[in-house]
UniProtKB/TrEMBL annotation:
Protein's name according to its UniProt entry: ERI1 exoribonuclease 2
Pfam families per the UniProt record, alphabetical: RNase_T (PF00929)
Record's keyword terms, sorted: Exonuclease, Hydrolase, Nuclease
Domain Exonuclease: residue ranges: 32-229
An example Gene Ontology molecular-function term: 3'-5'-RNA exonuclease activity
Species the sequence originates in: Pseudolycoriella hygida
Domain of life: Eukaryota
InterPro entries noted in UniProt: 3-5_Exoribonuclease, ERI-1_3'hExo-like, Ribonucl_H, RNaseH-like_sf, RNaseH_sf
């Protein structure tokens, strides 16, 4: 019995069942989410010199239809780390990304962002996506990450170090971990623990960026079915910065 089932058996939480019609009439405005979960260079504790900072080595994204729970499109690109191009043994074992993959199948971050932008533009045209703060209309899609680290720390800091201009659509996102804690009143130890709490299991290889993204998407869909509203939790666009 998982934790959520135990809580329900003890009448600690209330179970609310939603029909598809009820979900369409709920406060959930988003129809889609784009889940991103970067993998970055890493080292065994105590083996990383102070000057080394994480560099993105895997850039995955999945577009999910929240009403059908179907993945409609995926983006996947390996990224060449320029500051420390040789992966540590720890990083290879942790992520499953080999040095050969990076040497033969990667592009610099700037080129990866351009390719991602092309993928995004195609999706915007095909599905008529409306991103947060891009028009006066209600957004139909938002980025989802597990914690703020991917966009607020990893991508932002690397772009600043390398003088790369990241697209403005990366300025708003949903931290699904924060939403999970607020909705279920439970603080998961990690992502696998969050899945266990709602009776789900990880599918694929943990710490593979694309598999992580797919599983975060699965959890987002489950949370919507449980009634959780998905709304932007972080906005770092210039107009939202403190004066």
């Amino acid at each position: 019995m998982n934790l959520l089932e135990l809580a329900r058996s003890l009448n600690i939480v209330e179970t609310i069942k939603f029909s598809s019609g009820m979900l369409r009439n709920s406060k959930q405005n988003l129809k889609y989410v784009i889940v991103v979960d970067f993998e970055a260079t890493c080292w065994k504790k105590g083996e990383s010199p102070k000057w080394r900072q994480p560099e993105i080595i895997e850039f995955p994204a999945v577009l999910v239809d929240l009403s059908t729970q179907q993945i409609l499109s995926e983006f996947h690109q390996y990224i060449l780390p320029s500051e420390c191009p040789k992966l540590s043994d720890f990083c290879i074992n942790f992520t499953g990304i080999t040095q050969e993959l990076i040497d033969n199948n990667s592009v610099p971050l700037a080129a990866g962002l351009v390719k991602f932008g092309t993928w995004m533009n195609d999706l915007i045209d095909k599905f008529q996506l409306v991103l947060p703060n891009t028009s006066g209309s209600i957004p139909s899609v938002a980025f989802v990450t597990w914690t703020d680290w991917d966009f607020d720390v990893c991508l932002t800091k690397e772009c600043k170090r390398k003088n790369i201009e990241k697209q403005k659509f990366f300025d708003q996102w949903i931290d699904l971990k924060a939403t999970f804690k607020d909705w279920y009143k439970y603080r998961p130890k990690n992502f696998a623990d969050a899945l266990r709490f709602v009776g789900m299991k990880f599918e694929g290889r943990e710490h593979s960026g694309i598999d992580d993204s797919r599983n975060i998407a699965r959890l987002a869909c489950r949370m919507v079915l449980d009634g959780a509203p998905l709304i932007v939790t972080k906005d770092v666009s210039p107009k939202c910065e403190k004066k």
